[in-house]
Amino acid sequence: MDSIIELRHLKTLLALEETGSVSLAAKRVFLTQSALSHQIRSLENYYETPLFERKSTPLRFTPAGMRLLQLARELLPQVAAAERDLVRIIEGEAGELRLAVECHTCFDWLMPAMGEFRPLWPQVELDIVSGFQADPVGLLLQHRADLAIVSEAEPINGISYHPLFAYEMVGICAEDHPLADKDVWEAEDFIDETLITYPVPDEMLDLPKKVLLPKGINPPRRHSELTIAIIQLVASKRGIAALPYWTVMPYLEKGYVVHRKITSDGLQSKLYAAIRTEDANKGYLDNFCQITHDRCFADLPGLNELEM
Length: 308
Known about the structure:
- The protein is of the alpha/beta class and 308 residues long.
- The chain contains ten helices and twelve strands.
- The chain has helices spanning 7-19, 22-28, 33-47, 63-91, 107-120, 136-141, 206-212, 227-235, 245-253, 283-299, and strands spanning 52-53, 60-61, 95-101, 124-128, 147-150, 159-173, 184-185, 195-197, 221-223, 241-244, 258-262, 267-276.
- The strands form three sheets. Strands 3, 4, 5, 6, 7, 10, 11 and 12 form an eight-stranded mixed sheet that branches.
- α1 (7-19) packs across α4, α2 (22-28) crosses α3 (33-47) and α5 packs across α10 (283-299).
- The radius of gyration is 22 Å and the shape is globular.
């Protein structure tokens, strides 16, 4: 029997398993929901059997679907390894990858990605430009860094961007704080509150930049370098804060603080990997971006795909 199975089918099945939803899986593989459904239905029609139960939440795979998932788990890593080997053959294995970051919470997910990258590219020197960087793209242009994690894909000559992911910033307060009674916080709710933030300029903080300052609201501040210190201050009712959902989730589960949506649409933030355009053909840089994207979606809750 001739096979109609393609790598895109296997990637779609893995996305369905990881997200548990047709709509989320479609975003993961950059398809419309109807295109993804058509792709799956073509397999089901060919083999004359369903691959998953459509009315289950999260969706549940049939034995036929599970067998194809097994194939995807076995084959796709081999394909990725072969592609890395080809890059090494063509470009060589050695290189340098110095990382610069502009966000304090990036290290929560950068460390696992770096740990996965090192054994795959043992001849690439991987390092972090120490400390918080207010202008990581400037370090790229000065050749003092090779990849920067940034929140804006600002058009700059000589710089290319890889989308990583989008995520939601949530407001946090003590469980018995008056704002805990509100499901959604608007800009006006911050007027009489102390806002606890990292010690960075307002233009690098999404809450002031996108929500507060456009309405002329500038509450008093208290600063801390450490996420855990911000959580402790909030729990002690020294103020309120806005942090990525994945950062605060462990503390929410322990009951230290509660979280609330910021504005009815939610406060969405984005992260990109920036590299020098002249380095765009370096396979290990592209592979690091892909590993980071995939690892974050596997490890962090509440992420959304980000398109350029």
